[in-house]
Design goal:
Number of domains: 1
Shape: globular
Helix content: 55-70%
Structural class: mainly alpha
CATH topology: Four Helix Bundle (Hemerythrin (Met), subunit A)
Strand content: under 5%
Number of helices: 6
Order of helices and strands: HHHHHH
CATH superfamily: dinb family like domain
Radius of gyration: 15 Å
Distance between the termini: 28 Å
CATH architecture: Up-down Bundle
């Protein structure tokens, strides 16, 4: 079961990479509308939750074994992100830098998860939803895919041409 979810997650990340292809640097942190997140903020949200759940160290808000500017508490939840503009450090990141950082966080989080090698029926420590590791991996595939679709939509709303999606 775990390997099947990890394979599906890799496929989701392939599509996520497609969503970043050709993204203009000036559009990475631009919100297409008042209540919609930017591509960079969506990337931060994906990175935050993958790292916290697969490489976290206990109850929320837990320290994380992966360090990254994308692992920022402001990215944890849509209303919190909307209320807090991206930092200077975030806005300095180009499309390529955001994609590479998101991919690095993904790879390091998976490495920590694989080293931990938890039973998929074990509850994730401190996870308020009560997810087991197996349930979270299944959800993570959906989570990455859902936000990939949002990234394509943000790009369309900003007037960008995207790869075939």
């Amino acid at each position: 079961m775990v390997e099947a979810y990890l394979q599906a997650l890799e496929l989701a990340y392939f599509e996520l990479g497609e969503a970043f292809k050709g993204l203009a640097d000036e559009n990475v942190w631009k919100r297409p509308a008042e209540k919609l997140l930017s591509v960079g903020e969506l990337a931060g949200h994906i990175a935050f939750w993958e790292a916290v759940r697969l490489a976290g160290e206990g109850p929320d808000p837990a320290p994380c074994r992966v360090s990254s500017p994308l692992i920022d508490r402001r990215f944890r939840y849509h209303p919190v992100t909307l209320a807090t503009p991206p930092s200077e450090q975030h806005r300095a990141m180009t499309a390529e830098q955001v994609w590479r950082e998101l991919l690095r966080v993904h790879e390091e989080s998976l490495a920590h998860f694989r080293a931990l090698s938890p039973d998929p029926d074990t509850r994730i420590p401190g996870c308020p939803t009560g997810f087991t590791y197996g349930e979270y991996l299944k959800y993570l595939v959906f989570h990455v895919s859902y936000h990939t679709g949002q990234i394509f939509t943000v790009r369309h709303l900003l007037g960008e041409e995207t790869p075939d999606n």
